[in-house]
Amino acid sequence: MNLAEQLKNYTPYNEQEEKDRDLILALLQTYPDIYTRDNHTAHMTASAWVVSKDRKKVLMAYHNLYDSWAWLGGHCDGDEDLLHVALKEVREESGLAHVEAIDGEIFSVEVLTVDGHEKRGEYVSSHLHLNVTYLLEADSSQPLSSKPDENKAVAWFEPDEVYTRSSEPWFVDRIYKKLNAKLAEFIEKEAQRKK
After folding, report:
1. CB-based contacts of 195: which residues, under 8 Å, 6+ apart?
2. Are 152 and 87 in contact (CB under 8 A)?
3. Distance CA 68, CA 132 (A)
4. In this structure, is the dihedral angle defined by the CA atoms of residues 47, 52, 54 and 58, taken in order, positive or negative?
5. What angle (nearest 5°) sits at the alpha carbon of residue 117, between those of residues 115 and 120?
6. Burial of 11 (0-12, 13-18, 19+ CB in 10 A)
7. Residue 90, strand partner residues
8. How far apart are CA 1 and CA 81, in angstroms?
9. Which homologous superfamily is 3-194 in?
10. Torsions phi, psi for 32 (to 5 deg)
């Protein structure tokens, strides 16, 4: 199933997801180069909410660009399999050898604004990241390593600790709180299935 079909079948969690999903679907139909950074207005990205096997911790990286603890993920760069992108980015950014999708379904959608910035000595204009997030899991005892060109550190935190670790209020209020609420609901459903 292609991304447009996955998004059409996805049930938005809240008004933000509903509006962002509709915008992503519209832009998927508008721009043929939406999966690449050649589109300077907006392009697809994939992120991950990585949880420990016991569901008590989430993985964050201290991103150089944003000077903040944040979730992991990155650009598709032509790859239309966003789950593959999310897994690849987590491995690259965290050093985790083993990470996997919990169910492979879209966990969250969001349109993110990126302010203009310098990257590798070149100015990148402000643009949108059309983001799809997946719920991934990993053993928190695995060794971690940073990716110096992108982040300074990688660490596991209790879910609520993310709110004080991130220095980006919009992400805390609109993204991380939502992801943690969805995680709590997912954990509850997992517990019900095991009964």
Report:
1. none
2. no
3. 20
4. negative
5. 145
6. exposed
7. none
8. 10
9. Nucleoside Triphosphate Pyrophosphohydrolase (3.90.79.10)
10. -70, -20
SS3 readout for the chain: CCHHHHHHHCCCCCHHHHHHHHHHHHHHHHCCCCCCCCCCCEEEEEEEEEEECCCCCEEEEEECCCCEEECEEEECCCCCCHHHHHHHHHHHHHCCCCCEEEEEEEEEEEEEEECCEEECCEEECCEEEEEEEEEEEECCCCCCCCCCCCEEEEEEECHHHHHHHCCCHHHHHHHHHHHHHHHHHHHHHHHHHHC
Please tell me the distance from the alpha carbon of residue 68 to that of residue 175, in angstroms, as a whole number. Answer: 14
Query: How many Cα atoms within 13 Å fall on the side-chain side of residue 195?
Result: 6
pLDDT in tens, the chain (195 residues): 899 999 999 999 999 999 999 999 999 999 999 999 999 999 999 999 999 999 999 999 999 988 999 999 999 999 999 999 999 999 999 999 999 999 999 999 999 998 888 888 889 889 999 999 999 999 999 999 999 999 999 999 999 999 999 999 999 999 999 999 999 999 999 989 887
User: Which position has the token pair 């990585």?
Assistant: 50
Task: Tell which residue, 135, 104, 133, 120, has the closest CA to residue 37.
Answer: 120
